[in-house]
Write a structure and sequence with these properties.
The chain is an alpha+beta fold and 133 residues long. It is built from two helices and six strands, in the order E-E-E-H-E-H-E-E. The protein has one domain: 2-Layer Sandwich (60s Ribosomal Protein L30, Chain: A), CATH 3.30.1330. The longest helix is centred in the middle third of the chain and has 18 residues, at 46-63.
């Protein structure tokens, strides 16, 4: 069984997908772009775009009743890996303690010419109490 998670504080989905889905004790977010509430890309370079994408991610995670501290994995898409260092400086501020596992890849293009997109998987702390033997 899956539950659709939506936040009115995050930009609306720009396609046929949900902001996040809860299934089996996990929350899976769609990739969050650096869109403002009106659906426009935030201008100002990779740092400002990273802040906006992570703020959108945080909002969706919070709509699921979780926090960024409960994110266990992220997938990051960068339009240019030359932005990695500056992206990473901002990212580190959002995950200062026990950061999640992460994959980061360069892509040819992102929707609306964004420079970054971030998706996440989060788990309630009680989830770790499950026995996976």
């Amino acid at each position: 069984m899956k539950e659709i998670i939506e936040s009115e504080r995050a930009p609306e989905a720009i396609g046929p997908y949900s902001q996040a889905v809860r299934a089996g004790g996990l929350v899976f977010t769609s990739g969050q772009l650096p869109l403002d509430r009106e659906g426009k890309i935030v201008e100002g370079g990779i740092e400002k775009q990273t802040v906006q994408a992570l703020e959108n991610l945080k909002t969706v995670i919070e709509a699921a009743g979780l926090t960024l501290a409960e994110v266990v994995r992220t997938t990051v898409y960068l339009q240019d890996l030359k932005d990695f260092g500056r992206f990473n400086e901002v990212y580190a501020r959002y995950f200062p303690d026990k950061p999640p596992a992460r994959a980061c890849v360069e892509v040819a293009a992102l929707p609306r010419s964004a420079r970054v997109e971030v998706a996440a998987t989060a788990a309630k702390n009680e989830f770790s109490a499950f026995n996976f033997q």
